[in-house]
């Protein structure tokens, strides 16, 4: 899914034809409503000397961006909680866990004079883990995942529908690492480091 979502979204936007270019000026505020698909890295670390595997998850997302200068904005990404299954190689599923990854990004929107406006940014991600449901071999134990701080990268493109509305397709990479504890003892480290693929509607006030 991760290999087709972004190209498919871009193709759909192109098929709509040319739209009006929407300038981003200092003081503008945009809000975005969409969906994000979190795809963890292929290698998710280890615990108890066994490889960790974290499943993907899709949830609604919300963005709020304030333009501090023309074409330069500060964006806050929020979402409803993502839910992931956690497996240990050889033991199967040991938990289901929820996480929230609010991310603050400084990003530049490249003016092109067309309906398409590429953007890229760099920022910081904070991820908190909660509502852990131990399963299988971990049933009856207390599993914990420490909160994480890390770098976040962002790139995407807006397609202007008119002066105040656009469709966005984007991709993010987040550095998310968490200490794993079992009954209070450190037993390993989860390295989630996901790609997050998104499609959203953007409205400018």
**Termini gap:** 33 Å
Instruction: Tell me what the CATH architecture is.
Output: Beta Barrel
**Percent of sequence in beta strands:** over 45%
**Rough outline:** elongated
The counted number of beta strands is 15
In terms of per-residue confidence, which ranges show pLDDT below 50 for 5 or more consecutive residues?
A: 1-21
Q: How helical, in percent, are the residues?
A: under 10%
Look up the CATH topology.
Porin
The top-level CATH class is: Mainly Beta
How would a crystallographer describe the biggest sheet?
Answer: 8 strands, antiparallel, barrel
Summed over residues and divided by their number, the pLDDT gives a mean of: 90
Tell me what the structure shows.
The protein is mainly beta and 205 residues long. It has one domain (5-204): Porin (Beta Barrel), CATH 2.40.160.20. The chain has one helix at 5-15, and strands spanning 29-39, 45-47, 50-54, 57-69, 72-79, 82-88, 92-100, 103-109, 116-134, 143-145, 148-160, 165-174, 177-182, 185-191, 195-204. The protein has an eight-stranded antiparallel beta barrel with strand order 1-4-5-8-9-11-12-15. β4 (57-69) and β5 (72-79) form a beta hairpin. The chain is elongated. The model is unreliable at 1-21 (pLDDT under 50).
